[in-house]
Target: Nucleoside-binding protein
Amino acid sequence: MRISLRTRGRMFAAVAMAGVLTLAGCAKDSGTNNADSGGSGDAGPCVTAPEPPPPPKGSSRESKAPVDVDASDLRVGLAFDLGGRGDASFNDAAAAGVDKAKAELGVTDVSESTATANETEDAKKQRLQQMAAAGYSPIIAVGFAYAPSVKDVAPKFPDTQFALIDGTVDLPNVTPLLFAEEEGSFLAGVAAVYKSENCHVGFVGGVNTPLIQKFQAGFRQGAEAVSDEVQIEEDYLTPAGDITGFNDPAKGNAKSSAQIANGADVLFHAAGASGKGVFQAAKSAGALAIGVDSDQYKQQTMDPVKDVIVTSMVKRVDVAVFDYLVAVARDDLSTLPERFDLAAGGVGYSTSGGKIDDIVPILEGYKQQIIDGKIKVSAELEN
Model:
């Protein structure tokens, strides 16, 4: 599915950037760009907005101190989404959080199980029930697809703690772990425009759901914030209800190849394990790509294609899972944020490979404006 765009400027109607946007028009009319004005990055042919002001010194988040918590009594259940450990994306990020808990908190007993393609709801319920009946607590359900099963199973095991990533179930023993995907994806959109030579970028979503539309919405807003000339290709691999779109690299390759044929030269995917096909298409065609969830440049399974990965929109599922396990071990869930956003360090971007080093000051400027509320990134997709 190709979605028509040209929604320039609408998403910033309520944003306190009127002065910046006015300057953008002046820069365009005068033929100047960031490179001409001594900016920190090569604006290329596509950028029409001026660089944002740099963030104040000392505004970056400090790295967390080691956590002094003993979680050795926890028996952790990890119910993976489709693709499981080794998907180099969403599931691996959740696994990394548990692995860190093993290394730093003393967790030793972990049970892992993975969803299969087009499995029934009963299969998901059985997975959670088996873990709960075996005494595992907390049980972490990785992905919104588990929401109905958690809602059904959690009341039957009131003494078992459950966490649901990307979903909300209103029960006393269920903790939602939610993210501001649109904020991190905004920065991916900025990076895509700065790295595009054709002023033409693309988005590939795995499954057409409200969650993945948040990635799409943020990416679109970020791209259009820095350019009123950019063209954006947008496709989904499968419709809502068909989760195979998160584990079909061949389909990801085909959709991406079509976008590249249409002129897109930087592609951002939010497609789970299907993203490998996006990277393969980019490599074959001499295009660039942006990863998702994990720092995909560092994923061993991505070594053959990592040279095309300019950055990844990092969704810190690992941070959320680790912080959740710390909170459970302390018996204090109140320390968790309502959403893991840019301010909480829950989303962001990677710099591995050095391909965006020249625009990091620009990305940090936009990031600070989002944190400060000067840019409000909508999670809703405008058609």
Q: What stands out?
A: The chain has a mean pLDDT of 88. The chain has two domains: 10-54+181-316+350-371, 75-179+318-335.
